[in-house]
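REQUEST FORM: STRUCTURE PREDICTION
Request ID: SP-0412
Submitted by: Lab K.M.
Chain count: 1
Length (residues): 170
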Amino acid sequence: MELAGYAVVLIDLQRRIVALDTEPRPGTEVVANGRLLADAFRTAGQPVVLVRVENLDNPQPEGDQLVDELGVSPGDLVVTKHQWGAFHGTPLDLHLRRAGARGIVLGGLMTNFGVESTARDGDELGYPLVFAEDAMASITATAHRFAVDTIFARLGTVASTSDIVAALGR
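STATUS: Completed
RESULT:
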């Protein structure tokens, strides 16, 4: 797996969402693996994008904040979206292209909502995709597995956080 020129895009790792019950792993584990990915991309000098969702009809200032455990760095790009996918109505594609990103590593919450919607749009925009399976979770293990096995396996490469971090170190 060659990841030179890739960006990591982590979806909805916010206080209110990480606090939800998720499967097959808790949100805190998703955040921990997301942090490993973000740190590895920062060390490699490759873009880190943190996406947060804000409901315009019901903003939750405290709950909408990215979790502290993610270790947001001054060089990270933070994108605010208002629907499931991170591309529609945001400058994400423009920022990725300006940063020279030719592919995307995806993780976050929820697997079959925000991550999948972003993946579908990213694929349609021509980005090669890698999915950090253990850096995502959903409302049920079945929903997570379906997205990973049926959708993500067709859109790109499914890998573990440790395999992605190792590939960046090469």
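NOTES: The longest strand covers residues 129-137.
Reviewed by: T.R.
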